[in-house]
Amino acid sequence: MRKMLVNEAEKDAWVIGDSWRGIMQITEIRNYLHPMLTYKLLCENTNHSFNISKSHSWEKITSNGIDFGKKLQKAFQQLENLNDSLKDVFTIFNFDSIEDDLSLFKVADSVLNRHSFSRDLYDDPSSLIGTVTKYLEDLLEAFISREGAYGGESSSPRSITTLLPRLLDKTSGTICDHASGLNGFLIEANKYARLNKGEVELYGQEINPQTRALGIMNLIIHEMYPEVADVKLGNTITNPQLKDDDGQLMKFDGILSSPPFALSNWGYEEAEKDVYGRFRYGLPSRSYGDMAFVLHSISTLKEDGKAVIVVPNGVLFRGASEGKIRASLIQENLIEAVIGLPANLFIGTGIPVAVLVINKNKLNAMKDRILFINAEDSYGKAMRNQNVMRESDIIDIVDAYQNYKQIEGYSRIVPINEIADNDWNLNPMRYLERAEVSSKIGNANINRKKYEQSELPKVLLGEIADVERGINPSKEESEESEATHYLVNLVNVQNDRIIAEGLKGITLSPRRARDYELEAGDILLSSRGTMPKMTVVTPEDIQEKPLVFSQNFLRIRASDRTKFEPHFIKAFLESPIGQYYLQAYQRGTTVTVLSHKDVASIKLPKLTVDQQREVAQMLLQADELYQKAMEEAKTKHEQSYSDSYHLMGISDTYSKVD
């Protein structure tokens, strides 16, 4: 009978979506489908501890469609009355509110009742990975993937929920998810333990009542609730619910979590008065709650516990209070590994993320060291705008982590003194070679160590030039009526030149303008985006009216142009090794940015000014010859077409517009 259910999920999802189109939003479908699926499963299987009223069996409810919504609601109320652990799980969704409840019946009758959910009827009756479980997972996953960002808020991608339990590698003890959502991590942690002949106790906390309800139904589908897993309702930071008999925070052997990214209203004021000692390393930024969840996880780990947490990349390098906290965690030997993951894994967002492994029981060999893994390129395509880590990618990551492998360009163990030299930055790209970069001469493989360890004299860019970020004009300054300056923005730099057409005027006071006015010889380097733009300001650029540069650029101004040639500096930054540094220093989530401090830390070859000018002149001449050749080729190309039109006898039917 197994074949009757295999591969049916996607088809059934389309039928259900069509049936409920216009009745409810795509984001609401799971709220009504999930309770129906779970209740049918409970009614058709007996190997669970829940009491089901015979007068409200699934068979009786679906015998006809009269008042179907009310019948479901009454059945759910009765289910919760008979089972205290299900309070507010099923009835939180009001089936009475669906005006066209006949559409609910049609789905129950024509889709759900086409299949039996009795596990024993199928070849694989397992609640872990069996036929019925797989069908239900795939059916619900189909709607999560269609919900876009809404689905992504409460559900982590399957590849991530698969990866993290393998990194945690716990087959006994207690495991917790402090932002449990749909409980994907708890389900996979249980699956991992049981498939490896182990057994774990699972705990979670979820802030959203509806998400918690759906998550508990998910646990029921996998026969985990309430015996194996317990999930509390509440705000983990401001109102932690998982406490021991003394009112202290429970301690766990393992933690798996993917907290909400960049949460602004996370509870800063409450954290200032925290009674649990969670913020002894410092208070995170008011604007970002990511580090608050990391600190909570550390506080709820046993002395030999491990936490594996998904964080946005900003956690790895943001400064101020977060930088100080990060430095303390590194110095306390709490961080064991940082794993950079591919972008576009999460539904509805391209935010790049990483896995932070906190281990209170690091091996002695890993003391004062951190393992970095760069898995940013380890993915396949799930759909046009979404990536997925394949099983082979997950195996590679876990193997590199568990065996502390050092693989060129992929993984490396870094001493914390090197991390300290990099301002406690934990971005894996800071410590791993980018195998390939794009440059003026095409793609090139980089050997950073060979450059840095060579005997070639070098000098910090910040020692020979000032590197500053541009202006962010106010609304009043953006008025063009009495403009005093032209603002150079990203769109105004094309093919290494400032395009005068399209420059917008702004009005600045002399004092305000002083810090941002451009001079001939200044280098502009775009500070936002993955494709850097660069140009050297010419005397002709500033001939008509003074120019200032926007916040989207960094200005590099040589302190002594008799010793340092701007075109040489530009040429180095455009070289393969220069491009490597610019790409490695990019920070950010949705939009990457370059820090002026990072750019200033780049080391250039220390050549004499005559040598610099020779390099600059060589490249300027090469650019001129290239441009001339391109123009000549274009002219010849156009002339050949014109001659062909003359031969066709149609040359008098058009006139060229310059």
Describe the structure.
The protein has 658 residues and is an alpha/beta fold. The chain folds into four domains: 147 residues; 279 residues, Rossmann fold (3-Layer(aba) Sandwich); 150 residues, Alpha-Beta Complex (Adenine-n6-DNA-methyltransferase TaqI, Chain A, domain 2), CATH 3.90.220.20; 34 residues. It is built from 23 helices and 26 strands. The strands form eight sheets. A nine-stranded mixed β-sheet has the order 3-2-1-4-5-7-6-8-11, with helices on both faces. A hairpin with a 2-residue loop joins strand 17 and strand 18. Helix 8 packs parallel to helix 15. It is globular, with a radius of gyration of 31 Å. The N and C termini lie far apart (73 Å). The mean pLDDT is 91.
List key phrases describing it:
single chain; alpha/beta; Rossmann fold; Adenine-n6-DNA-methyltransferase TaqI, Chain A, domain 2; nine-stranded mixed beta sheet; four-stranded antiparallel beta sheet; 23 helices; 26 strands
Short description:
The protein is an alpha/beta fold.
Q: Could you tell me the CATH topology label of the largest domain.
A: Rossmann fold
- What is the count of helical runs? 23
Structural class: alpha/beta
Strand percentage:
15-25%
Spatial strand order of the main sheet: 3-2-1-4-5-7-6-8-11
- E-strand count: 26
Number of domains: 4
- CATH C-level class of the largest domain is Alpha Beta
Helix content: 25-40%
N- to C-terminal separation? 73 Å
CATH architecture grouping of the largest domain: 3-Layer(aba) Sandwich
- On the 0 to 100 scale, the average pLDDT is 91
Write the CATH homologous superfamily of the largest domain. Answer: Vaccinia Virus protein VP39
